[in-house]
Amino acid sequence: MMSFILPILHRMSNRGPIERNQRHSSILYGKKRVDDILTGHVKNCLVAYRMEPHIFRALASYLRRENL
């Protein structure tokens, strides 16, 4: 069984480097970047901040109000 599995694993590992595409290609930074994420697609906000835009805004407002 091992003589069958090992050659297959060896062939799979010699395929070369995997080319990756950059997911976020924005040149924005700081407040502009945050605004871009919050006004963009909801999934981008979920990935970046682990929360929906309206929850992020509510949390930010609360922290400002409490001077935190």
Automatic annotation (TrEMBL):
Pfam families: DUF8040. It comes from the Eukaryota. Residues 26-67 form the DUF8040 domain. InterPro entries: DUF8040 (IPR058353). This is DUF8040 domain-containing protein. It comes from Aegilops tauschii subsp. strangulata.
